[in-house]
Design goal:
Order of helices and strands: EHEHEHEHEHHEHHHEH
Helix content: 40-55%
Strand order of the largest sheet: 3-2-1-4-6-5-7
Number of domains: 1
CATH superfamily: Spore Coat Polysaccharide Biosynthesis Protein SpsA, Chain A
Distance between the termini: 25 Å
Shape: globular
Largest sheet: 7 strands, mixed
């Protein structure tokens, strides 16, 4: 079963070299797609320069077109991928490559007995560097996790994790709840709701969580929280997680 990685980046110029070095360590990946989400710090140009130095032919760099937003970028990148499975790995270097390798290995082992699974990196209950999680962000993650139990029927501790791996049809199938897909700016809620729609087994794997050393998160607490609330209510009312 082939796996490709999608690495969404926005204003992550200082993380480019380490992300390229990290993701290319995963030798089993079929394709690696970096997509820049309308950065204003030169991330896209730096990506292009960096891959000239890196000889890994699996790498593709895309510049996102409108509509912007992380999830729209992921969907645009996915249109260039033909693999059976997709790894999303946020380009902020907060989850170490050693943990992502372990997550991918666990996913591959689980695939041998069940091809309908989703694996989510769990930053919440694992070891975290000091100041890697702000108190409000941690509280928000717990609230989203408990709320999503109504949709997923079991608790996923870190719904908002930036590392997820899943069958590609969860993202690309034409019978998904399209209105929810368009509402979700980040994709975290819809991807897991789609997994529930396909009766996927959702596994959480603990990972270390590091302090971001370059740039700031692009997710505004209030705007991001309001967007997630809208998506959650829509998915719940329209039963987008049910076949």
């Amino acid at each position: 079963m082939s796996i490709s990685a999608i690495v969404p980046m926005r204003n992550e110029k200082g993380n480019v070299d380490l992300m390229i070095s990290s993701v290319t360590e995963l030798k089993d990946l079929e394709k690696i797609v970096f997509i820049d989400g309308d950065s204003n710090d030169g991330t896209y140009e730096f990506l292009l320069e960096s891959i000239k130095i890196n000889s890994d032919k699996r790498i593709m760099v895309l510049k996102q077109t409108e509509p912007f937003g992380k999830f729209n970028g992921i969907k645009q990148a996915a249109s260039h991928v033909k693999s059976d499975n997709i790894l999303i790995w946020d380009g902020d270097n907060t989850i170490p490559v050693s943990d992502v390798k372990r997550i991918v290995n666990i996913y591959v082992k689980l695939l041998k007995s069940n091809s309908n699974i989703v694996v989510v990196a769990n930053r919440i209950t694992s070891k975290k560097e000091k100041k890697s999680f702000r108190l409000l962000n941690l509280l928000g993650n717990h609230i989203v996790s408990f709320a999503m139990r109504l949709i997923l029927k079991n608790r996923v501790p870190d719904v908002l994790s930036g590392v997820k791996i899943f069958p590609s049809y969860i993202l690309t199938s034409k019978d998904n709840c399209r209105s929810a897909m368009s509402l979700d700016n980040f994709g975290d809620l819809v991807l897991l709701a789609n997994g529930a729609r396909y009766n996927s087994q959702i596994y959480s794997v603990e990972c270390n969580y590091q302090v971001r050393f370059y740039g700031n998160t692009s997710i505004g607490r209030w705007n991001g929280g309001f967007n997630m609330l809208k998506v959650f209510i829509h998915v719940l009312l329209h039963r987008c997680s049910r076949a």
